[in-house]
Write a structure and sequence with these properties.
This protein starts with a helix and ends with a strand. Strand 4 and strand 5 form a beta hairpin. Strands 1-2-3-4-5-6-7-8-9 form a nine-stranded antiparallel sheet. The longest helix is centred in the first third of the chain and has 25 residues. The chain has 242 residues and is mainly β. The chain contains two helices and nine strands.
Amino acid sequence: MKHLAFIIISILIFNNRLIAQNDSDVKGPEQGKIYFAPLPVLMANPSFGFMYGVAASTSVFTGDPSNTRMSTSLGSLTYSTKKQFMFTFKSNVYLPEDNWVLLGDWRYFDTSQPTFGLGTGPQSAKLAPGSGIEYEGGMFSDPVPGAQLAEFKYIRFHETVFKKLKEYIYAGIGYHYDYHFNIVDNLLDLEAIPPVITSHYAYSIDKGFDPEKYILSGISLNGMYDSRDNAANPYEGRYALV
């Protein structure tokens, strides 16, 4: 699925560049004009089933094209035969004269994902100590041999604002918000004898988290070097983000 997504993104960037190039052959790039390239999405994998939807890239010059780089964004809206809904929107916006740069990553998922215990070996199939559930022989639960499916909804809002300090060098601050909610742990069965306790549930109870929802929220301090001629499809330049 990642390879298919990469192909879709590559086609969108290529189409978008062709649109901008063809238009520039006639008039040259124009400030404020939006170059838009939609594309249907068709893909399939075992976890999501058959997925269909639409993806689109947009490009625009917010300032004079002679001193402002092209701003780009990529969005997608998909639905699957397993009733999974996904919306993503990622943006890279250069304000006039590249004095400010905005990096965004917004998402909404109504989906499912297999989860696993912590660790890298057989111990990862055991639940965390302190969960209050213990079996004979020191085991905290019967081992869960494979993936533990969880259904959930997810909202992401990541936005970082950069200020140009001098040519190609930026400093910025970001806010990052991730909210998982309506979590349904499919294997969890507290009424069974013995109960079936998943790694996600045991860890949440042990650490004092609500097993049905939780939020990660915080700020970041960032440094960026960006000398690319075009952020969507650069021919030359360097890029680093810390």
